[in-house]
Backbone:
C-alpha cells in the first residue's frame, strides 16, 4: 500500500468508495458526503490553498482516501479532516492510522491550530481511531459543513504534534 496525493484519474474510484461506504452504514444520502458537490470532483476540490487529499492504493487499485481543508463557514484557524473512507477489504490493517498521520502532518504543516471532523454515530471503528490519535468529542458542530446528518463531532489540538 502507498499513500499519494489525489490525481484527476482518481475521481470516479474515490467517489464510489465514499458513496458505497455511506450506504453500507445506512447513513442518509442527504446531509452527508454522499451528496456533496466536492464528492463529484474530488481532485478539483483539493487544489485550493492549505488543502490536500490523499489516496491509499496498491497495484493500481484505490482502497480509500482522506483529506484536510479549511473548515467551511468558520471564522478561525481550524481545518477539517474530510472524506476519510475505505473499502471493507482495507479496514483493520493499519492503513487508516497511516493515512490519519499523514493528514495530521499536513494540517500541522499548513499551520492550522486544530483539526475537526464529523462522522456517523454507527461508524465505531472510525471513532475508535479518532480517539486513539487524540480527537475529543464536542457537544455541537463547528462551522457549517452541510453534514447535518453526521451527529458526532470531534476535535484535536494540532499544537501537540
Residues:
Amino acid at each position: 500500500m502507498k499513500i499519494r496525493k489525489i490525481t484527476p484519474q482518481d475521481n470516479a474510484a474515490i467517489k464510489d468508495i465514499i458513496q458505497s461506504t455511506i450506504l453500507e452504514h445506512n447513513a442518509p444520502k442527504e446531509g452527508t458526503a454522499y451528496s456533496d458537490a466536492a464528492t463529484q470532483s474530488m481532485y478539483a476540490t483539493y487544489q485550493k490553498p492549505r488543502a490536500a487529499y490523499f489516496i491509499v492504493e496498491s497495484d493500481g487499485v484505490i482502497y480509500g482516501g482522506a483529506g484536510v481543508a479549511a473548515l467551511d463557514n468558520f471564522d478561525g484557524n481550524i481545518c477539517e479532516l474530510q472524506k476519510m473512507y475505505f473499502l471493507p477489504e482495507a479496514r483493520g490493517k493499519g492503513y487508516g492510522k497511516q493515512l490519519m498521520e499523514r493528514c495530521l502532518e499536513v494540517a500541522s504543516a499548513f499551520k492550522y491550530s486544530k483539526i475537526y471532523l464529523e462522522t456517523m454515530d454507527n461508524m465505531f471503528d472510525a471513532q475508535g481511531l479518532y480517539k486513539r490519535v487524540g480527537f475529543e468529542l464536542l457537544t455541537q458542530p463547528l462551522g457549517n459543513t452541510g453534514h447535518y446528518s453526521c451527529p458526532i463531532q470531534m476535535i484535536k489540538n494540532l499544537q501537540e504534534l
User: Anything to note?
Assistant: The beta strands are 2-5, 52-58, 61-70, 78-86, 114-119, 136-137, 152-157. The CA atoms of residues 91 and 125 lie 9 Å apart. The mean pLDDT is 93.
